[in-house]
Amino acid sequence: MNTSTLHSEIAQLKQEIVEKRKKLVDLRKQLPKTPVKNYEFVTSKGNSVTLLELFGDKKELLVVHNMGKSCPYCTMWADGFNGIYHHLIEKCAFVLSSPDEPEVQDSFASERQWKFPIVSTKGTTFKEDFGFVNERGFIPGISVFVRDETDTIYHVL
Hints:
Mean pLDDT: 94
Largest sheet: 8 strands, mixed
Structural class: alpha+beta
Radius of gyration: 18 Å
Number of helices: 5
Oligomer: single chain
Number of strands: 10
Shape: globular
Strand content: 15-25%
């Protein structure tokens, strides 16, 4: 296959991916909101906090499912959130969740100079319940939650 044909095929695949992503977004918008329980976590400082409390005064909460200190890619992504965290919290609440012990999280976050809140999911079914565990262990990703005027929490992504 010549270079021109390869470039053409790559361009076509990229366009198909764009179209599939648009369809995925449209389909996700059609899903009904799913109410969830008010999970309890431990912060990196060792304090107990509920999912509802993580919203603060916001109606939306973005939870990053991090694989913990042992994953260099998750660490790299978390480092990147430092640069945009102040923008994110203008729109929604933000927290990084990790399976690590709170003491490990606190030490690691201090080393990395992370500015955002971190919660430990250790001892909870939170990651499992939202599909961030498979047969090999934890997997990374993002969940979005919203709360209504009655403080019912819904998983929307």
